[in-house]
Amino acid sequence: MKKTLLTLALLVISVMAFSQASVGIGLKGGANFANADADFDTDGVTSYHVGAYGLIKLTNIGIQPELLFSKQGTSVSGDDLDLSYVNIPVMVKFYLPAGLNLQAGPQFGMLTSAKDGDGDDVKESFKNSDLSAAVGAGWDAPFGLQFTARYVIGLSDINDEGVGGEFKNKTFQLSIGYTLFKLGN
Known about the structure:
This protein has a single domain, classed as Porin (Beta Barrel), CATH 2.40.160.20. It is elongated, with a radius of gyration of 19 Å. 10% of the residues lie in helices and 65% in strands. It is mostly beta strands.
């Protein structure tokens, strides 16, 4: 078993060394400016997201899966709706010169809690999952920092009761990340 693991590790290192590929793991966090696309008037709320990412980069294309805890929601008639998700975006990054990049990909979300303005649990009013599309731009700085601006638009109606019509998440995110570990170029 140890020989197999050692051989596999040496093979991965060799392939990465000759293919100019790199693999990195890091942490990120930032601000969420969230709202809802709904059949009634809503106002935005400001919150946060925090989590980890992996980046597999081959020359000018990268794939960056992430695992994020994200506070989202909206405000309806001055009453905040606080939605908490564990989101898994899988971003394809197209690199331009100097580490600048354009990003696009799907995001899968799992609702962990939903509270109204009084702090009452209203999770039963919402679907447990959310499918979204994300687009954005970023800069991967040479010293391990990542700066990202991303717009996430909900594709699925999360209203589980059907009362009040469709309800879809939409969030603008500003993030800062730091690559803790990097193997390859």
